[in-house]
């Protein structure tokens, strides 16, 4: 899958979503990510959406679902790199992602995951 | 924009809403605030509505949305200075602002943000 890259760093799966991701790709990503979280015993997942300049309800919902699935598999999950316009759109669409943790950047998310592991 | 002032203090954006803010102003504020939270990496947002003597559903909804957008951008958000009459109106209008954190005053909100940063 070229529409997203997944890398394992310090037991954390980093998922970089590409800007040209399609609806089909993002559903495939849900399958692939679930398998990898489970297979690699990842303790965290960081989903980087900084390439996304716009979102619709479908993408918003799938990202929320990705985070929820990873949480259920016991991987603490952060969405990072959300652009201001994307945050505004999600709120206007009535999607508050209440169960999704956001962090400003990958660095911030990794710091919090390390703090959680050390604590 | 004169209808609201925004100042950065200790990584926290303080937003003071003026009493004569119009519906158009408050929508502009949503854009400006989203951009600034992201650009300055603010870890908190405090929205001071002490000048507002009355609110309608529109203003109530936009304030709730402001708080939700800032939360999505990883800034802990407080609404401060809500007058009793405003709280009563919001409840009567059926707006419970479930995801909006309120604090009595700016001082209380800053204390909680400092405690969160230190913890």
From TrEMBL, chains A, B:
<dbReference type="InterPro" id="IPR002645">
    <property type="entry name" value="STAS_dom"/>
</dbReference>
<feature type="domain" description="STAS">
    <location>
        <begin position="2"/>
        <end position="113"/>
    </location>
</feature>
<dbReference type="Pfam" id="PF01740">
    <property type="entry name" value="STAS"/>
</dbReference>
<protein>
    <submittedName>
        <fullName>STAS domain-containing protein</fullName>
    </submittedName>
</protein>
<dbReference type="InterPro" id="IPR051932">
    <property type="entry name" value="Bact_StressResp_Reg"/>
</dbReference>
<dbReference type="InterPro" id="IPR036513">
    <property type="entry name" value="STAS_dom_sf"/>
</dbReference>
